Amino acid sequence: MTAHNFDPTILRAYDIRGQVGSTLSANDAFAIGNIFASFLPKKGAVPRIAVGRDGRLTSPELADALCNGLVAAGCHVIDIGVGPTPMLYFADRILSCDGAIQVTGSHNPPDYNGFKIVLGHHSFFGDKITELGVRAAAGLIKADGGHREEKSVFDAYIARLVKQADFGTLSIVWDAGNGAAGPATEAMLAALSDKGGAQGTHKALYCDIDGHFPNHHPNPVDPETLESLREQVGAMGADCGIGFDGDGDRIGLVDSKGRQIAGDILTAFLATDILTRNPGADIIFDVKSSALAMQIVRDAGGTPHLWKTGHSHMKQKLHETGAPLAGEMSGHIFIADGDYGFDDALYVASRLVTQIAKRTAETGMSITDFMDSLPETFTTPECRIDCPDTEKFGVMARLSEAVSNDHAPDSVNVTDGVRVTTSKGWWLIRASNTEAALVARAEGTDAVICDRFVSDIIHYLDNAGLKWAGPTS
Fold first, then answer.
1. Short-list 124, 145, 144, 151, CA closest to 135
2. Dihedral angle computed from the Cα positions of residues 83, 89, 91 and 97, in that order, rounded to the nearest 10 degrees
3. What is this structure's pTM?
4. Could you give the CA distance from residue 236 to residue 240 in angstroms, rounded to a whole number?
5. Is 432 within 8 Å of 392 (Cβ atoms)?
6. Is 89:124 a contact under the CB 8 Å cutoff?
7. Quick one: which of 445, 395, 391, 441 has its CA closest to 420?
8. CATH class entry, domain 8-152
9. pLDDT of amino acid 221
10. Which ranges of 106-226 would DSSP assign to H, the alpha helix?
């Protein structure tokens, strides 16, 4: 058996990701497919694996090699072609697959690419990705019976998006950022218009898939990438603007005043509707989420919980708890209320806009009015502090110990990094699982408190051996 060794930097916590031509190659893609087959249950029948890809320039080559590796291991590969990652998750369910793999670089630079993997309808991540590397080093596998077919699920996916949607008379600007969600965005709007569920004006930007990303980087959380969306919302007098990331599993939204609405607040807004059908239900937020978002959930009769950042962690927690909704500040939102519970930015957009339209019609309160009604808080941006991958977890261990020694146990949350909560707000430091960095954030009831929390962060980082001057904005 031929052994295969991956560059260790590509085996990440949530997925497999690297720079094509440097740390990631077609040979790696073949080995990923081949060894993934060894994790599949031995049921006698040929295992069924759905494979999709985003619109990056390197995705066709990587997807082809991935499929060849799966076929060599005896799998029945169902190639669904180009589309958003959630369309692959959808295919995994409706085609009764044993596993699924999307070739995608998500929101990373154009020369990066990677793989998001599903096994038994659940995320394949963490220790399983580490084990995949170990098994590949022990040797690739060969089995008979493998074959590949092409099958489109696009029309069925669009039908799901519009099944219960009604955008009323809202006017919205949509920005697909030349990513994989572009054609699906246009198809969703056309299908909804045909059935009378989109009576307002809808303008779709950058829906042609282009792996060069000529207009802007497809990251709807980065304020800079939302500039064209803000401009178009203002020029059109639209009710809001919605943007998607490169593979369509994260959403960003700006209101009619151009204000960016973070994923945790969007989650809380969705919860105000979902909790009318699920009173008292658990709503899951990641540790970077604001106290304000959790208070909105409490006021709506729900029970907010903090959990580890990362789409794989959040999906697993949603499944374990039976919660109807989970969301991250990054724009990964997971709806299990009447749906599958995976992160699908187009489906979330459909639910959000339908909820906004209904609320506006019934009460006159737009999403902009909702934002205006919220109390003012003072927050830092999500701050990234450079720290080598080989050092960041050691730094966090020293920092966590020091913080825990200095604060009352009930004020410290170490679910993911360390988060300190007081009556005046909170602050957080955690190790990024996708970058050579720590992540810090603070929220206070006023600017002075927020600045004080930033000083606390600087103090503990300094004691742990890492210098940081504070937020740049």
1. 124
2. 140
3. 0.95
4. 10
5. yes
6. no
7. 441
8. alpha beta
9. 87
10. 127-138, 154-162, 182-194
The DSSP letter of residue 280 is T
Q: How many helices and strands in the chain, by DSSP H and E?
A: 14, 22
Active site residues: 106
Which pLDDT value is given to residue 260?
95
- Report, in angstroms and rounded to the nearest whole number, the Rg of the chain calculated over CA atoms: 22
Extract the tokens encoding 437.
Answer: 């960095």
- CATH of range 378-463; options 3.40.50.1100, 3.30.460.10, 3.40.1550.20, 3.30.310.50: 3.30.310.50
Which tops the pLDDT comparison, 108 or 205?
205
Coil vs helix vs strand at 236: helix
Strand partners, 240: 172, 255
The number of beta carbons lying within 10 Å of the beta carbon of residue 403 is 23
CA distance 356 to 327: 18
Q: How much is the pLDDT for 121? A: 96
CATH of domain 156-373: 3.40.120.10
Residue range(s) in the chain whose domain bears CATH number 3.30.310.50: 378-463
Q: Which tens digit of pLDDT belongs to each residue from 451-462?
A: 999 999 999 999
DSSP 8-state secondary structure symbol assigned to residue 309: S
Q: What is the largest CA-CA distance in the chain?
A: 67
| Nearest-10 crossing angle of helices 182-194, 345-363 | 40
CA distances from 118 to 50, 348, 425 (A): 9, 20, 37
Dihedral sign of CA atoms 416, 417, 421, 427 in order: negative
Give the residue carrying structure tokens 């489906």: 347
Torsion angle of the four alpha carbons 373, 374, 375, 378, in this order, in degrees rounded to the nearest 10: -140
Q: For residues 322 and 367, give the distance between their C-alpha atoms in angstroms, rounded to a whole number.
A: 28
Count of beta carbons in the 10 Å neighbourhood of residue 322: 11
- Reduce the DSSP state of residue 9 to 3 states and report it: helix
Give the separation between CA 41 and CA 426, rounded to whole angstroms. 44
Does the pLDDT value for residue 434 go beyond 80? no
* pLDDT mean over 399-419: 95
Question: Helices 154-162 and 345-363, interaxial angle, to 10°?
Answer: 20
Q: Return residue ranges of the chain for CATH 3.40.120.10.
A: 8-152, 156-373
* Mean pLDDT, rounded, of the chain: 95
Query: Which tokens is 261 given?
Result: 């609405």
